[in-house]
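Design job #97: recover the sequence.
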C-alpha cells in the first residue's frame, strides 16, 4: 500500500467518524422531556404568617356626648367643629331671663313661707299660755301646732324649689366635661332646645385623638385563635400606600347575629401621634395569630388543583404500563370506621396535591398541612422536599413552567 492509498483510508475513516457524530447529535431522542401542561412552583423553605382578616371602624377611645337638661334658646355659642376645649370651659349659654325669674320667684316663696312660719310659731306659743291658764281648750292648741308644722313644711318646699331654680340657671350654661376636641356640633346660635322628653345631644367631644381604637367584627370561625395582645396591621383608604400597626386589647363576648351569621366585636388599640387617622375611617385589619420562621411550604393554590377526568384516566394508564402485571395492594382493615368519633385534626388538614416528575407528569402526594394563608401553606408531613415542583393549575397551551 502506497502513501496515497493510506492517505485515502485515513480520510475515509475521518469522514465516516464525522458522519457518525452528526447522526448522534441530530438524531431525535425518544427520552426528550416533553413540555409541561401545568403551571408549577418549586417547594421551598421560608416563613409563614397566619392572619385573621376583619373590617372595622376607627373611633376615639373616649367619645362624650354633651347634652342639656333644660330647655331654652341659645344666646351664646363658644365652641365650633375641631375646637380644642378644656374641662369646665363654657361651650354655650341659654337665654337666662326665664331662669333668673324662676330664681327670684323661688326666693319670694321662701320669704313668704318664713313669714307664715313666724306667725304660726307666735300663735302656738300664745295658745300654749292660754291653755295653761284654762282660757283655751287643748283642741285649739293642737290646731295651732298643726298650722306651725304646715308652715315649716311650706318653708322646706320653698327652699327645695329655690335650689331647683338655681340648678336650672346653672345648667343653662353648658360646659365641657373633659379635655378634648369637638368633632360634632348639632346646635346653632338662636336655636331653641327642647329637653322635655329626651336630652338633646349638642356636642360630641373626643378625649384624645392621639389614642384611637378600631372596633372590628370577626367571624365566629376565627375567634378561637384570638387572644389579648396580638399584633395587627391595617390600612385605610386615605393612605393606601401606608400600613399602620395596632394591638388587640379586648374580645367582647356579646355576639352579633345578622341573618344567622355570628360575629364578635374585637377592639384594637392604635397610636395616632401624628393624628393622620380620623374618627369614622374604615380599616382593613390583619391580626397575626401565628408565625413560623422556617418551614417547608407550598403555594396555597396547589391545595385546590384537581386533575380532570381525562387526565386521571391517563395517569391510571401510565401507572399500569409502568408496572405490568402488578396488583393493587389490599388496604389494611380499619379498626374503627366511625368517622364521627375521630379527631377533626386527623381529617381536616389532610390534602392531596400533585407533584411533577422528571418527565413533567403529575403524581398525587398526600400531605398534612399546618399554618396557611392566602399565599403559602406549611407542609407538616408528606413525600415532599425542597426543590420538588407542585402543580398549581393547568395551562391552556403547553409551555415550560
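Job complete. Output follows.
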Amino acid at each position: 500500500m502506497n502513501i496515497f492509498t493510506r492517505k485515502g483510508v485515513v480520510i475515509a475513516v475521518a469522514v465516516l467518524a464525522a458522519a457518525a457524530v452528526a447522526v448522534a447529535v441530530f438524531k431525535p431522542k425518544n427520552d426528550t422531556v416533553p413540555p409541561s401542561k401545568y403551571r408549577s412552583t418549586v417547594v421551598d423553605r421560608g416563613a409563614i404568617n397566619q392572619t385573621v382578616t376583619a373590617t372595622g371602624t376607627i373611633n376615639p377611645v373616649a367619645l362624650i356626648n354633651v347634652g342639656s337638661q333644660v330647655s331654652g334658646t341659645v344666646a351664646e355659642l363658644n365652641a365650633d367643629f375641631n375646637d380644642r376645649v378644656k374641662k369646665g370651659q363654657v361651650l354655650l349659654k341659654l337665654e337666662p331671663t326665664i331662669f333668673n325669674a324662676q330664681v327670684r320667684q323661688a326666693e319670694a316663696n321662701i320669704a313668704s313661707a318664713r313669714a307664715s312660719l313666724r306667725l304660726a310659731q307666735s300663735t302656738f306659743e300664745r295658745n300654749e299660755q292660754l291653755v295653761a291658764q284654762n282660757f283655751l281648750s287643748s283642741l285649739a292648741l293642737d290646731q295651732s301646732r298643726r298650722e306651725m308644722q304646715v308652715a315649716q313644711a311650706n318653708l322646706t318646699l320653698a327652699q327645695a324649689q329655690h335650689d331647683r331654680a338655681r340648678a336650672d340657671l346653672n345648667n343653662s350654661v353648658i360646659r365641657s366635661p373633659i379635655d378634648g376636641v369637638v368633632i360634632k356640633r348639632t346646635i346653632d346660635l338662636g336655636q331653641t332646645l327642647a329637653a322635655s322628653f329626651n336630652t338633646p345631644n349638642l356636642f360630641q367631644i373626643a378625649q384624645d385623638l392621639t389614642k384611637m381604637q378600631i372596633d372590628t367584627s370577626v367571624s365566629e370561625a376565627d375567634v378561637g385563635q384570638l387572644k389579648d395582645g396580638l399584633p395587627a396591621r391595617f390600612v385605610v383608604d386615605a393612605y393606601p400606600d401606608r400600613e399602620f400597626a395596632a394591638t388587640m386589647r379586648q374580645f367582647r363576648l356579646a355576639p352579633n347575629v345578622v341573618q344567622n351569621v355570628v360575629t364578635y366585636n374585637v377592639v384594637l388599640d392604635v397610636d395616632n401621634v401624628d393624628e393622620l387617622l380620623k374618627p369614622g375611617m374604615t380599616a382593613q385589619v390583619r391580626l397575626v395569630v401565628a408565625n413560623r420562621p422556617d418551614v417547608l411550604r407550598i403555594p396555597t393554590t396547589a391545595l385546590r388543583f384537581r386533575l380532570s377526568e381525562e387526565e386521571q384516566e391517563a395517569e391510571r394508564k401510565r401507572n399500569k404500563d409502568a408496572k405490568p402485571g402488578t396488583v393493587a395492594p389490599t388496604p389494611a382493615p380499619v379498626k374503627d370506621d366511625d368517622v364521627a368519633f375521630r379527631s377533626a385534626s386527623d381529617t381536616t388538614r389532610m390534602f392531596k396535591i400533585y407533584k411533577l416528575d422528571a418527565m413533567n407528569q403529575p403524581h398525587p402526594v398526600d400531605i398534612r398541612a399546618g399554618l396557611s394563608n392566602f399565599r403559602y401553606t406549611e407542609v407538616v408531613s408528606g413525600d415532599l422536599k425542597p426543590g420538588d415542583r407542585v402543580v398549581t393549575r393547568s395551562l391552556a397551551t403547553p409551555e415550560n413552567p
